[in-house]
Amino acid sequence: MRRLRVPIAVLVFWAVGGAACGSPEVTDSADATDCVELVEAGRAVAERVLERLSGQTLLELEAANPGDPFAAIDPLMRTSELDQRADELGCHPEELRVQACEIYGGLAYRARGEVASDFLAPYLESCD
User: Fold this and answer.
1) Which residue from 4, 52, 60, 126 lies 20 to 30 Å from 68 (Cα-Cα)?
2) What are the pLDDT digits (tens) for 42-74?
3) In 65-110, which residue ranges form alpha helices assigned H by DSSP?
4) CA separation (Å) from 81 to 23, 42, 51, 70?
5) How would you label 102-122 residue by residue, b for 16+ Cβ within 10 Å and e otherwise?
6) Please, are residues 91 and 16 in contact by the beta-carbon 8 Å criterion?
7) Contacts with 33 (C-beta within 8 Å, 6 or more apart), sequence order
8) Among candidates 79, 70, 83, 80, which has minimal Cα distance to 116?
9) Nearest-CA neighbor of 14 among 110, 97, 119, 109?
10) pTM of the entire structure?
11) Cα–Cα dist 29/44, whole Å
12) What is the separation of C-alpha 33 from the centre of its chain, rounded to a whole number of angstroms?
């Protein structure tokens, strides 16, 4: 099965489980004022990606778009926005990876189906 590309910036999606008590959760990378908030914004994006992939098979995705089966999730990923904001905030990839590992298990239950599980696999593997 073809693995999804996993840019470092996507690790931003999962570095922290939630906002601090009483703080509103940041859901847009442009609103993030630090690396933790950027990860909070990324978690919302990751949840939407998993929702979109839920129950889908690779054959179904290829049938919908033979040239690029993952085209439907590309706009959801917003990788360039996250990369840019991570650079602006000075977020180090290793810092993001370590933070991301704290919540992978919390998202695993949303990975319904082989494609969604494959989407999460590189993140889970990076925690070993």
Assistant:
1) 126
2) 888 888 899 999 989 999 999 999 999 999 898
3) 74-77, 79-89, 93-101, 104-108
4) 23, 10, 21, 19
5) ebbeebeeebebebbebbbee
6) no
7) 89
8) 70
9) 97
10) 0.72
11) 10
12) 19
